[in-house]
Write a structure and sequence with these properties.
With 567 residues, the protein is an alpha/beta fold. Among the domains are: 3-267, Rossmann fold, CATH 3.40.50.620; 345-475, Ribosomal Protein L25, Chain P (Beta Barrel), CATH 2.40.240. It binds one RNA strand of 75 nucleotides through helix 6, strand 6, helix 8, strand 11 and helix 13.
RNA sequence: UCGGGGAUCGUUCAAUUGGCAGGACAUCGGGUUUUGAUCCCGACAAUGGAGGUUCGAGCCCUCCUCCCCGAACCA
């Protein structure tokens, strides 16, 4: 548990208050058990992370358990590949479920309970198709009407239901429905479907079932079977709660029954967090698959370099509420920066290289420029991270943005006549620059002060800027992917209903031919380092020398430039 | 239209359950600095509206407005 998570544990919210009240009253003998119940039909994203953190934290705060349960009741959309991915992502996020269950583990028990309801005249087989059922359901403020099959005899229902199971009927031809109240004000209670016929192979039960339980019929009962006490879910299930309770109350289940509590799902600015919308982005080819670093899926965030702990801290910090809210993605990024600032090693990389020549650099006996091995701290925030050696010579790469022939106001960096510090190197003074016909600088010429090795001047004189650099001879080439917001607007699709209309065309910029200091050739796959003065960058796990910008550093100069432009 | 839920600084989460509306992020200003980073200090800024109860209302009551969810054999 990080500090932030501990702090959150001390906080109270309406869910923690409920749980505390239950433990105090002995409702579940003081037991707290939760579950994270994903459907294996998509990849986990930041929204799931909120639910995961909540489910696990709540259990942990009361020495309870949190299980993972795959809600695999619909073989048409589910697949093992998602099961594996969810397991992997959950582990990466830092959580280990006490047990891994599947709703399909309970198919036989659910079936028995369904027969039980039939015998109590609380369920019936409806021979109608989906259209007729929907038609009879009524609408908002408009009561439904009873199905013509509603009052079948128990024997006929039992016979039909068993034949449904045996696979005698075609998909869509019949369903089993709970007999509740077609006039109920809550649409969920208007004789909801419990079983539908599916001629599909289930990823775990194979072809042994022809009928599959619906979410409502499976969920609460699965909770009860596992001994769940607090069943947390998102707000859109509020209306299902009444049905959740109804099913449990009709069944012969011993002991205190689990109950459902809802909370608002997480939304973030400039992105989407719905499986459907994410899938659209992937299938439309807007992004390169589910792992594209611009996506809010956990595997994408991992590739991008977001530390799992920063996601956990973020989730703990935002807490839980019933308000539909869209959190500023900058808040998430501030947690990422905080973590990476203390944990990432510092390196130097030049993304837009500009040649810099030191004209008074010493040569050896053969007339070749000498190489000076500079020693730089790996992380000034943490001395234990040690130092590294960075070669320095007469030919260097600096950032294009760090030199201007004619410096604008408040620009502290290099320009003719100016002295700046090369980080960890020397103080240099620009003497002149070579430009191409457009006036774009192509080579900067400087002299260095030999007395300033390491970057400090013995006479105590100050320079206003320190810039980063990479020695040209020893530099290694790399590719850097720069990311901006995937969507240009805070709430994608707010105007047109189509998030895709709000895409940011410049969400990814590939920088080829970047010049990196030699140590970066040894970056571990997935490792996140800070490119000094630029941001945090994650080494791609599959492609050597490809780095993804996790998040940029705060940039005062960029702010000033923007301000100047705005005027 | 009916049912359910919600509304507090720009954003988001708080407010000891009726007692000086607080934090974080963002923004703005300043200090430190061999990263215009980090760090530190300061500032800005809110109870959707109208009534009512009360010594006292973000909190309780009434009415209004706005937002979200719900009419899959999805979850």
């Amino acid at each position: 548990m990080t500090e932030n998570e501990r702090d959150a544990a001390l906080k109270s919210d309406y869910i923690r208050d409920l749980v505390a009240a239950d433990t105090a009253s002995g409702r579940f003998d003081g037991r707290v058990q939760t579950r994270f119940p994903p459907e294996p039909n998509g990849y986990l994203h930041i929204g799931h992370a909120k639910a995961i953190c909540l489910d696990f934290a709540l259990a942990a705060e009361h020495q309870g358990v949190c299980n993972l349960r795959f809600d695999d009741t619909n073989p048409s959309t589910e697949d093992v590949s998602y099961v594996d991915a969810i397991l992997e992502d959950l582990k990466w996020l830092g959580f280990t479920p006490a047990s891994v269950f599947h709703s399909s583990d309970y198919f036989e028990q659910l079936y028995e309970w369904a027969e039980f309801l039939i015998m109590r005249e609380l369920a019936y087989v409806d021979d109608q198709g989906p259209e007729a059922v929907a038609e009879q359901r009524g609408g908002f403020g408009r009561p439904g009407v009873d199905s013509p099959f509603r009052s079948r005899s128990t024997d006929e229902n039992l016979d039909l239901f068993r034949r449904m199971r045996a696979g005698e009927f075609a998909q869509g031809s019949r369903v089993l429905r709970a007999k509740i109240d077609m006039q109920h004000e809550n649409m969920q209670m208007r004789d909801p479907v419990m079983y539908r016929i599916r001629e599909e192979t289930h990823h775990r039960t194979g072809d042994s079932w022809s009928i599959y339980p619906t979410y409502d019929w499976a969920h609460g009962q699965s909770d009860a079977i596992e001994g769940v006490t607090h069943s947390l879910c998102s707000l859109e299930f509020s209306d299902n709660r009444e049905l959740y309770d109804w099913y449990l109350s009709q069944l012969p289940i011993e002991g205190p029954l689990p109950y459902q509590t809802e909370f608002a799902r997480l939304e973030l600015t400039h992105t989407v967090t719905s499986k459907r919308q994410l899938k659209e982005l992937v299938t439309a080819g807007v992004v390169d698959g589910w792992e594209d670093p611009r996506l809010p899926t956990l595997r994408a965030l991992r590739r991008r370099g977001y530390p799992a702990s920063s996601i956990r801290d973020f989730c703990a910090f935002i807490g839980v509420a019933r308000t539909n809210a869209r959190h500023d993605v900058e808040l998430l990024e501030s947690f990422v920066r905080t973590e990476l600032n203390r944990s990432s090693l510092r390196r130097m990389a030049v993304l837009k290289p500009l040649k810099l020549i030191i004209t008074n650099w010493p040569t050896d006996a053969d007339g070749m420029p000498v190489t000076d091995d500079r020693t730089l701290a790996n992380n000034p925030e943490n001395e234990d991270d040690g130092t590294r050696t960075v070669p320095f010579s007469n030919e260097l790469w600096i950032e294009h943005d760090d030199f201007k022939m004619e410096p604008p106001p408040k620009y502290f960096r290099l320009s003719p006549g100016r002295e700046v510090r090369l980080r960890g190197g020397y103080l240099i003074t620009c003497t002149d620059a070579v430009c191409d016909e457009d006036g774009t600088p192509i080579e900067v010429r400087c002299t260095y002060d030999p007395a300033t090795a390491g970057g400090a001047a013995p006479d105590g004189r100050k320079v206003k800027a320190t810039i980063h650099w990479v020695d040209a001879k020893s530099a290694v080439d790399g590719t850097v992917a720069l990311y901006e917001r995937l969507f240009a607007t805070k709430s994608p699709g707010e105007d047109t209903g189509q998030p895709i209309d709000d895409l940011n065309d410049e969400s990814r910029t590939l920088m080829e031919g970047c010049k990196l200091e030699p140590a970066l050739a040894n970056t571990r796959s997935g490792q996140v380092v800070q490119f000094e003065r630029l941001g945090y960058f994650a080494a791609d796990p599959d492609h050597k020398m490809l780095f993804h910008r996790t998040v940029g550093l705060r940039d005062e100069w960029a702010r000033l430039e923007k301000q100047a432009k705005g005027q």
